[in-house]
Design a protein that fits this description.
Blueprint lengths: L13 H13 L5 H8 L6 E4 L2 E4 L5 H21 L2 E4 L4 E4 L2 E3 L3 E4 L17 E5 L5 H5 L1 H8 L4 E6 L4 E8 L2 E8 L4 E3 L7 E3 H5 L3
Parallel strand pairs: 7-8
Antiparallel strand pairs: 1-2, 1-5, 3-6, 4-5, 6-7, 8-9, 9-10, 11-12
């Protein structure tokens, strides 16, 4: 058999590379330990769901501007209130075997105890900035998972619709608290005094 190189140098090697990568990365269920060791070295956002790796698409500059704008508001609040704000990459362990990489995370002063050396537990407020490749995941799987993990509040920012959907946990599921656009202000329900103008989060298109 001829030598196999990655990335493949010959068209006829493409299927062999696919088979090799599947056997190496995808055939066996992933443990938390293997995921944490691998995700730390992988140059992409990687999540762990039911023993499988989920590789997220690379963000666009517009996506990252919104992430940065949101983080600035969260970080200013956290600095004043003794909390802590983060942006991805940071593995969030929702429960055993389930790790997600939210775009922006906010922890209250009491919630900071859930931030560990290699990963963190569920935040007090979580934000996902939607992109075409993640919109369905953010609106279905993650909506259910963040609720199951007990995260009190979840914002979904939609750059195309120019809106923020604010979801607040009621019992075991989220209820839409508000859908806000430019000219309006999204006010957190889980913490006091955190108010973000939607236009400031969205920034320039």
């Amino acid at each position: 058999m001829s030598i196999l190189t990655i990335p493949p140098g010959r068209t006829e090697d493409i299927e062999r590379v696919k088979d090799f990568l599947f056997q190496t990365l995808g055939a066996s269920p992933w443990t938390e330990e293997a995921y944490l060791a691998y995700a730390d070295r992988f140059p992409r956002l990687v999540e762990l769901s039911d023993g499988c790796l989920v590789v997220l698409e690379m963000p666009t500059p517009r996506h990252q501007r919104i992430v940065q704008n949101t983080f600035k508001h969260f970080d200013a609040w956290a600095t004043a209130a003794g909390g802590e704000a983060f942006v991805a990459p940071l593995p969030i362990r929702l429960w055993p075997g389930k790790f997600r990489e939210p775009d922006v995370m906010l922890y209250t002063a009491a919630g900071r105890a859930r931030v560990q050396a290699e990963y963190a537990g569920p935040p007090d407020l979580v934000v996902e900035v939607q992109s075409p490749g993640t919109a369905r995941l953010d609106a279905t799987d993650k909506l259910a998972e963040y609720a199951q993990a007990g995260i009190p509040e979840y914002w979904r920012i939609d750059p195309e619709r120019l809106q923020v959907e604010q979801n607040v946990l009621e019992g075991s599921a989220y209820a839409v608290h508000a859908v806000l656009g430019p000219g309006e202000i999204v006010r957190a329900t889980v913490v006091a005094d955190l108010a973000c103008p939607v236009a400031a989060l969205l920034g320039a298109p």
